[in-house]
Structure formats: structure tokens, C-alpha cells
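PROTEIN DATA CARD
Card holder: TRAP transporter small permease protein
Chain length: 169
Origin: Piscinibacter aquaticus
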Amino acid sequence: MRRALDRLYDGCAALAACFMVGLLVAVLLSILGRQLHFNIPGIDAYAGYLMAGAGFLALAHTLKRGEHIRVTLLVGRLSGGAQRAAELWALFAATLLAALGAFYSVRLARQSWQFHDISTSNDATPLWIPQLTMALGTVVLAIAFVDEFVLELRGQRLPPLPEEASHNE
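Structure generated from the sequence above:
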């Protein structure tokens, strides 16, 4: 199960990286279009879709690598059982919030598909297509938070500290 979850997080991160490359290509095409006097309709909208997709798809991988911003002002001052209880509470609350975000993201994409909602820009893209990346990213983030919560309950979670965070003064 651990390997399957790690592959899921890594797969979403790889897809996010592909979206970042696509974003770079879209921005470069937009710049070239202005310089060489040609227009690709909707390129700015597509760049926005790719940027949003990259951000949402990278959320779970970022969480699992300990790169999410954490405010440890209170938890860092606690020790022993109090610290573990605070971690469990924080992970439980984050899991609930991630599950709500996932639920409503999936619901939004489904409703956009049902109502044939399209982009208001000149690309007229069916909105459920770019919203799928948001839905997938939030669902995988919710899975990652459940994973972290279960690991903490079992006492197997080692909160990863990024190098940069440990050097802050």
C-alpha cells in the first residue's frame, strides 16, 4: 500500500511538472506571438489552466516531502503527549478541510460538465476539463492527509523538516 500511495503522489508531481513545461511553452508562444504579430486564441487562458493544474497536482507531493508551510509556534513549544495530541488535532482538522475541498472541487467539475459551462474567454473551453486537475489534486491531497493522520496515529510518522526550515533564525 505504501508503494502505491508514493507512486500516486509522485505521478501527480510528474504530471504537475508536465503542466509547468506546458505553461512555459504557452507563455513563450504568447510572447513570440506579440513580437512576431500572430495570435493564438485563448493562449492566456490555457496558460492559466496549466498554472492552476500544476499547483493543485503538486499539493500532495509537497505535503509528503514536508514542504508545505507549517506554523509550529504552538506545537514546537509542546513536548511529549501534548505535542502528539496537537499534531493529531492539526492533522485531523487538515484532513477534514482537504476532504471538504476535494468534495467541492469534484462537485464543481461535475456541475460544469452537467451544465455545459464554458470559459468566458475567447477559447470557450468546457470548464470541466481544467477543473478536473483541481479535483484530482484536491482528492490526492485529501488522501495524503489521511495517510499522514494514520501514520501519526500508528506512531510511524516522522515529520520531515526541510533543510531550509532548519536554518531559519
